[in-house]
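Contributing new records

If you add data, match the layout below exactly. Sequence lines come first and carry their own label; structure lines follow with theirs. Keep one chain per record. Anything else will be rejected by the validation script.
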Amino acid sequence: MIQIQTFTFNPFQENTYLIWDETKEAVIIDPGCYDESEQQQLKSFIESNELKVVKIVNTHCHLDHVFGNKYCQDTFGVKLYIPKGEVETLASGKDSCARYGIPGFVESFADELMENEGTLTFGESSMEILYVPGHSPGHLVFYSNSDDFALGGDVLFKGSIGRTDLPGGDHQTLLDNIANVMYKLPNQTRVYPGHGPFTTIGDEKRSNPFVRG
């Protein structure tokens, strides 16, 4: 069974997820830890629970989801995996921070590019890779059928959807992919988003004002 721990980091209140199974192998999803206190919070949890980080993974590469990439690469000595369609987005992080007036951005570079389908594996667990662009050009979602949850990044929120006014975003593409990819998941599937509380597919199909199922 996959365990999930949520950390809310940086000025954008981004959700960083740590997932692991009974083997204690763990994956950091979208490390948004920005300052030293946030970095230490993540590291302390990993150490106190005797977890072994084996991968760092980005659902997409907007700056609030990648602040901690380089720190985690250096601290845990593991590879960074990003979607193959997010290379340019990751490379634009420094310029994006300059536009927002955010100092101290540390650039990171992918070790591996993920395809738009396949599986994310760790320990004795695997999650299906879903390609759900619209918020960003290469956005991926990671879905566990056995544990009924999806790590959704900035695709679908509780009562809302990801913004589409950033470079590479497309509103209709996002709406179509929510309807044709996310809403095909079982109603009981919990969606852990990049911001805010978790929701379920069934709840969003019934009440999301942007896309009804």
